[in-house]
Design goal:
Strand order of the largest sheet: 1-2-5-4-3
Shape: globular
Low-confidence stretches: none
Strand content: 15-25%
Structural class: alpha+beta
Mean pLDDT: 90
Number of strands: 5
Helix content: 10-25%
Length: about 100
């Protein structure tokens, strides 16, 4: 698969994420979207999951002192489903995409 840029692989999705982050006042995270690269796809096997890592996956769990989650509901995004970003040291590390039509 290589390290494809999210914005090149799924331009509509990248635009939606950037817009939702901007609306939530997350300008720093929004500015990261165009440079995010798909490092590894989630291997959970759930048919409703299209999640992926944009940083190397942790060996165990993200450190609690530098980790936070950002959640956006579907009304803000314009599609049904859930978007949750795991942010470590103010860098997007994991993009959780659940119950969404195929990424575009």
């Amino acid at each position: 698969m290589g390290l494809s840029k999210v914005v090149e692989r799924w331009p509509v999705f990248a635009r939606q994420v950037r817009g939702a982050l901007g609306r939530d006042g997350e300008a720093e995270l929004a500015s990261q979207v165009d440079e995010l690269r798909v490092v590894e796809l989630c291997e959970c096997g759930d048919d409703f999951c299209q999640s992926f890592y944009v940083e190397r996956p942790p060996d165990d769990v993200y450190p609690s002192d530098s980790h936070r989650s950002w959640y956006c509901d579907d009304e803000e995004l314009g599609w049904d489903g859930h978007l949750i970003l795991d942010v470590v040291d103010e860098r997007i590390a994991f993009v959780e995409v659940l119950y969404r039509a195929p990424l575009d």
